[in-house]
Amino acid sequence: xxxxxxxxxxxxxxxxxxxxxxxxxxxxxxxxxxxxxxxxxxxxxxxxxxxxxxxxxxxxxxxx
Amino acid sequence: xxxxxxxxxxxxxxxxxxxxxxxxxxxxxxxxxxxxxxxxxxxxxxxxxxxxxxxxxxxxxxxxxxxxxxxxxxxxxxxxxxxxxxxxxxxxxxxxxxxxxxxxxxxxxxxxxxxxxxxxxxxxxxxxxxxxxxxxxxxxxxxxxxxxxxxxxxxxxxxxxxxxxxxxxxxxxxxxxxxxxxxxxxxxxxxxxxxxxxxxxxxxxxxxxxxxxxxxxxxxxxxxxxxxxxxxxxxxxxxxxxxxxxxxxxxxxxxxxxxxxxxxxxxxxxxxxxxxxxxxxxxxxxxxxxxxxxxxxxxxxxxxxxxxxxxxxxxxxxx
Lengths: 64, 319
Hints:
The complex is a heterodimer. Chain A is mainly α. Helix content of chain A is 67%, strand content 0%.
């Protein structure tokens, strides 16, 4: 039994698959664009980055 | 988000196997023509708001509001497939025509509802997202499943669902709902019944066949004509009053005065006619009023947009 690389179904549904693929790509592009904008326009970000951050430590101390 | 102008999907069939959906069928499922109205009114709400959004965030907000409207449209087509099959205007839609399975339409509607609400919340704020979620619920459950087949006031309820987009646009920009957003909401709520009842007057057999309790069926055509005028009479002062809020200004007020006079004149013409006169000229006045009502809404919101666009130069509004 041979494996057919392209079934007739693939040709018939090419337009539909292409449309869905492009829609998903567009969604990914929008999410990426939003992420860039949110990071650029957001406040300064601070997080654990494997180095001692006195600013964070002092703030933590204040809360206690 | 009312559905009378939804495309029937006739153009999506070239080369498709029988009973198999093409990508165009999924697009039709989202009611692109209704979506265009949603995009426009939501954009006006967003741009008229006294808060600036980053263009990318604004674009994403409008996109996800439109997607939410599309999701509600898909849910409507899923539920209404049985009556859509009976009406000439809607029998070519993907579900009644058998190109999209009902379960598939339901799945797409639910998935896009969740996606659009979540993404609008992340892109803009959760007030706007909450309003979008409520709009989808209101259109799909309150209007489509509950009231559309139960009351002749169905169009009024459907109109309320279609009136939310400018309010969501406003909320996306400001994070709240103000008097101006309510004014835009009221404009569409009051505009919808005369718009659709005019359509119902000249597409009589469609609603009769489907058993949808349209006012023309339950209360007769004479009462429908009177109701069109009644709503036009209430709409005019509301449209004028909106001109004195922050979204209005001299330009809007002038446009609203002319548009409402023409709207009232069209409604008066309809109420002065009986069925014999209407049938004699092929419902010419009703058709003209229906077409003008589309222009009315477009120009009213365009005037709000113009006031917002002129504001940076000190020309818009009442400053």
